[in-house]
Each structure stands twice: as structure tokens, then as C-alpha cells.
Automatic annotation (TrEMBL):
This is Glycosyltransferase N-terminal domain-containing protein. Keywords: Glycosyltransferase, Transferase. Residues 13-78 form the Glycosyltransferase N-terminal domain. The keyword Glycosyltransferase applies. GO terms for molecular function: UDP-glycosyltransferase activity.
Amino acid sequence: MATNSSDNVVHLDEVIVAMVPFPDFSHLNQLFVLARFIASHNIPVHFLCLADHNQDLKLCVQGGLGSSSIHFRDLFVPVKNRKMLAMVFLRFNIIDDDDHETMIQQMQDEFPLLESCGGPYVAVLLRKEHELNLNSGEIVNSCREVEEFLDKQDVNSVIFVSFGTTTTFSQEQVNEIALGFEQSNHKFIWVLREADKKMETEKFEEKDGKIELQKGFEERVEGRGMVVRNWAPQLEILGHSSTGGFLSHCGWNSCLESISMGVPLAAWPINHDQPFNAFFVTNLLKIGTPVRSWARREELVTALTIEKAVKTLMGTTEGEEMRQRAAEVSNKVKSSVSRGRPARKEMESFISRIIK
């Protein structure tokens, strides 16, 4: 924006893009990918989000593509009582129109209307935002340890476990997850952050204290299992040759990254758009296995159920077939965004439109 000093008339001579993602609808990383693409065309982007999310993003893009044109603005008062459902299907040309229509009809039959838990949930996020105390040195060390762990493992031998930044589990459920992985005898990386601290389902009251793993768990799985309590480089982990599966809440960002990297999923949707996404990867693309049915979402997921899902994905012919299909879908996705292909053309068209 430029100002003519003679008559104080403001003239617009540049485009500035502002982005306000909704993290609990998996908008955060996808909008940030878009922000980096726009910024790579020398268009200033202002990314408005809660301070803790901005801090994570800053750590993963230091010196990266277009990062110098991205300006982070911390939000301290999120929108309250929002109720919305958002799904974004990028045109990767991996399913035809008939399958797409069938998928939509099946989803409408399978799931009721889902709504955000909005107001009280955001209030807890706001309290946590003020308590944030990230140590970038610890995070860098954690990332290095993850890379070193993966480099020592065989191809497709490790399952990555992450439930996003807004998923909440009880201590009892955390214990079952730990026991399930211990009993599976498979190698794993489990991201267990303080953001996963339990909030009461009805009252959304934040509990005090750190998430605890049962005594001796980390010692018993040492060498084949790793627990990460800081931010983890999810895309890099999924892209590593040692990673052969992803136990996920099926946030859309996580699904896209897993699909793009050719990694099949063990689908454990929690809320929002996640059951739709899980249905998409398990029933239509057939590159995932469900951990439990959506109809039983209020029940505790037992260690035996988790163990079975891990073994199915990582140690069976069925799991290997999922990996092969995931690799095929990944190739289609990568092809669609290469220069001259439909998805790339649409993005370039978008840039051309906003700078006119």
C-alpha cells in the first residue's frame, strides 16, 4: 500500500494475503502450505493464529521456501461458539467422478452431522496458549533423535503414532495405547505432547499434571520404541524409508501428508471431519485399516484392539497390499502437482487471479 502525500489518498499497489486457519479443523498446516506457495511468488502473507501454533510453524520453516515473506501474527482471542464442518478435496485426480459421488452418498448414510465443540473447547486452548513454554533447543534435539532412530531401522518397519494438537485422551486411554504398542512387538515413534492432556468431556476443565506412562514402559521398549514429547517433524517422518504405517486421528492434513508420502494408515478418528476422512482412506482408497468403528467412539479402545490394528498394518499381507496401493496413490498425487499438470495449473491460475 502506498500513500500520495499531496492529497492523502491511499492507493493499492500491492497484494497482501491474510490467512486465519482453524487448527481444530485441520486447516493449520494446509493453509500454511498454501501460504508458503503464495509467498514464493513474492506476495506478503500474514498468518494469524494462536501463538503456540505459530511457534511450531516458525520452527519448521526457518530459512525455508518463501518463509521470509510470511509474517506471523499471534491471535489471543479466538472466535467463540463457531459451528462448522469443513472438508477440502484437492483435485489430485486419484478417483473418478462416479467413485466420488458414491463416496459422498456413503458418507451421508454413515455419519450424522458433526459440529465443533466450539466455545468451551476454545477457552481451554486459550488458557494453554498463555502457558506455552517452548524450548527450541529441546525441539531441535528431539528432531535429531527421531532422525537417528529412523536411520537405524529397516525399511517400512516403524509405525508413526500421532493424534494431532487438539486430540485429548484420558490417562486410562494413554495406558491402553502404551500397552497395545508394547504387546505388538513392532517398532514405533509415538508423539505424546502436553497438548494431549485430558479435558473433561462435559465441562472441558483442564487437568493438572503431566501425562504419565506406566513405570518402566520406556525402558521395556527401548531400542524399538520412541516417545516424543515435543513437536515432531511429521512430514519428514512419514517420508522416511523406515516408516511403514501411521496410526492417526485422520485430520485432513495428516491424511494428505500420509497419502502424499505413500504411507498407509491405522484410522482412529476422534471428531470433526475425521470420521469422513477415515472413511475416505479405508473404504475408498483402501490404504488404511480402522482401529475401531465410529459407532463405538465413546468406548475405551483397549490395548488388544490397538495391538491388532498395528499388527494388521505392519505385519500382514493385507498391510503390505495397503502399502503398495498407498505408493500408487502417492505417485498419482505427485504427478498431479508437477508442472503442467491439473493441480499445478489451478494453483498458478489462483496466483494470477489474486494479483490482478
